[in-house]
Amino acid sequence: MQEASGSSAAEAPRAVGTLGLPEDASAHGHRIDSLLALSHRFDFVLATVMLGWLVLMLWRFRGARRVAADGGTQRSRALVMVAALIIFGVVDGTLFARSLGYLDEVLWNFTEPVGNPNTVRLEVNARQWAWEVRYAGQDGRFATADDVVTWSELRVPVGVPVWVQLTSTDVVHGLALPNFRVKLDAVPGRVNQTWFQAAREGTWEVACYQHCGTSHYKMRGTLKVMAPEDYAAWLREASRQAARGHDDSDAPAHWGWEWRPAP
Amino acid sequence: MRLFSTDHKVVARQFLWAGLGFLLLGGLLALLIRWQWAYPGRPVPGLGWVLPESGGALTPPTYTGVFTMHGLLMVFFAIAPLLIGALGNFVIPLAVGARGMAFPRLTALSFWVFAAGGVLVLASFGVRLGTASAAWTSYPPLSTHVFTPGVGQTLVMLGVVCAAVSSFLGAVNYVVTVVRCRAPGMTWGRLPLTVWGLFLTSVLNLLFIPVVAAATGMLLLDRLTGTRFFLEGAAVVGGGDPLLYQHLFWLFGHPEVYILILPGWGMIGDFVAFFSRRPAHGYRGTVVAMSTVSALSGLVYAHHLFTSGLSPMLGRAFMTLTLVISLPSTVMFLNWMMTVWRGSVRLTAPMLAAVGAMGVFGLGGVTGLALGAVATDIPLHGTMWVVGHFHLTMGAASFLAVFAGLYFWFPKMFGRTLHAGWAKAHVLTSAVLFIAVFGGQLLTGYAGQLRRLYDPYQYTFLKHLLELNQWTSFAAFALGLAQGIFLVNLAWSLRKGPAADANPWQVGTLEWTCAPSPPPEDNYARVPVVVRGPHELSQPEGHERLGRDWIGQAELLPGEASRAAEGAEEPGSQVPSAGGAA
């Protein structure tokens, strides 16, 4: 579906009736998706057993003649504890262990973007109601004259780590890349960090997930995943134009910061 | 009924009417949200006179006010006053065998402070720039004067402070009443589970209401006096920290969901025992489980902040604690199930409501698991999945618990009997439609629909969800209409309902066995002397010596010597009951 860079998920609505997660276009999102699918199977089994047992019991014991007059025997009380521990161990234990695996190896593992020489760095500044995106330009450094800034359009190359530093100018926003399993708050006065890696070229949607005022629902952007050579060519040209058009007196435009070390 | 009465039963009714009024208002606001998601921007039928400029259609500013006030009204002005203000005030003194609350004037004060808060909140709808619109969480900087300058936001925040003060005063009263005013012989192990639930809720209120009062107070200072606790960014130089507010808010906000469900858990525990005609399975285990959940409730809050840039250390810790809290919840839930097992089930309206509350709470519980683990929280964070999850637990389950309690204690409160058939019909349709509405929200959330969007279909990846949202909205409208059953039943029963028996449910707790319906102002002619637990049902000695399947908590069997405290009054405070209604 997403083969050519011209085609675009951001413009082609999916068929009605597909209620799965948004399509995954990232290198690591499948790990979350499979864990979530497993957790839904747990949910389904637990919910079915619970509701089924409840309804069955109401039917089976409705107006029953014989009643157990005790508040549970030692055995039945032990049974409850054992059952609770088994459910807890299996369901919560699996979720915990596999979630921790993802966190340690992907989400909180910044050695990947730090160590990879091809890593692309982005500074994102959220404001009511747009995403300002800053690219380091040809000199590879932020907060310099050749920084490229785009509005509500992120551009990244495919197949390399993308390391994002995020803040906000005004209120709390939330940067969501639904197709890349990325969510991070943009908080004024703080720089939050995350990273992801696109697996396929195409155009995807950027959404705000924190209520940020009247036009919160319009704080939509796009994420363009490009072939590395296309990205390099675009950045070179945009950086040259940015350096030429740089206006030293335009203070509000200079919101960029020196790249921060990994958390 | 005196307006400024200090009788806990009168104050309970005041909370009941006020809470039902706000429930109605909050529910109507919810239906407006559902309309907007089904027919974005289309005029709402019959709303033209309220919103003349848009011809009755919701505009983005109106919509933000609507969903903000839906949340705030439901949490602070509907569920809390109904479950804690109305049922708590009514039940606690009666169930512990007290002649009233420990501090009667505090009881009245807590209602009138609440009422003042309600007036402020209602007034906010009429001011320029409209009511509060920064979501029920009121995250700064959005909720400060810089981004929400209207006086409506200030009025609502003051209203929330009033509701907080009211809850705090009520909690002081409840805790002291349970600790100090129990009848002779009413040991902790003989308290009905409802009292345990209300007691634990009150303890949590005492601990965490001051936190939300502090956060809201600091926000009000920012708005009104120019402080900068939570302001930061381009709008200020040398500001404070918006994230501090989020921590304070959720340090209260997460216990709050337990505050709003613990009384319901207690009632479920009691009602499944009463209407399975057997003692609660593992009473002690259930009490320990409820207490453990209460103790843990303040230690899990940061799962609301998994995407806020939380340090990995805190992320790990809060993920662990969040998952751990499901263990005592499971023990409690299984104990309820085991109570019904080998019982003799009576499908009364309170029982159906309690079982319905169990069902929706269970669904809400399992759908919360994925939100408690950081990795699976990411795709679901801030989506309708979260909305569906917490509406099942603190919306649907609390709502059904309110009606379980109301249908159960209505005869005692008003001395009249509700129409049982209509009560059951109301409970059943509500439970089924709750699952439909919040199930639909879970599905759209899984597909990625974000919360609080005026028009979700701005996003291409959400366009295909319109049809599902419409079906969910139809279920919500049906749920709204179904409440008419309750209103008609209520109006009819209050005027024409048959006089209630002292003990229509044939159970043994003090309010049913030692006081008529309704009880006199000082509750008990003679303070009962408690000799047994709250669920003495289907006991062989009861069958043999009394010829019935229940024994009153203060009832001595023929020939049984008084086991109560020495020097206590003569037993025999039992009120005769013709029995057998419903």
- CATH homologous superfamily identity of the domain at 1-260 in chain B: Cytochrome c oxidase-like, subunit I domain
Number of H/I helices of chain B = 17
Give the H and E element order of chain B: HHHHHHHHHHHHHHHHH
Approximate strand percentage of chain B: under 5%
General shape of chain A: elongated
Query: Sheet bearing the most strands of chain A, described?
Result: 5 strands, mixed
Describe the structure.
The complex is a heterodimer of chains A (263) and B (582). By secondary structure, chain A is of the alpha+beta class. Chain A contains four helices and ten strands. Chain A folds into two domains: 29-63 and 71-107; 118-246, Cupredoxins -  blue copper proteins (Immunoglobulin-like, Sandwich). Chain A is 33% helix and 23% strand. In chain A, strands 3-2-1-5-8 form a five-stranded mixed beta sheet. Chain A has a five-stranded mixed beta sheet with strand order 4-10-9-6-7, with helices on one face. Chain B is mainly alpha-helical and 582 residues long. Among the domains of chain B are: 1-260, Cytochrome C Oxidase, Chain A; 501-582, no CATH class. Chain B has 17 helices and no strands. Chain B has helices at 8-38, 60-96, 104-124, 151-180, 193-225, 242-259, 262-274, 283-296, 312-324, 326-340, 349-372, 374-380, 384-414, 420-446, 466-496, 510-513, 540-546. The two termini of chain B are 28 Å apart. The chains are: A alpha+beta (263), B mainly alpha (582). At the A-B interface, α1, α2, β7 and β9 of A face α2, α9, α10, α11 and α12 of B.
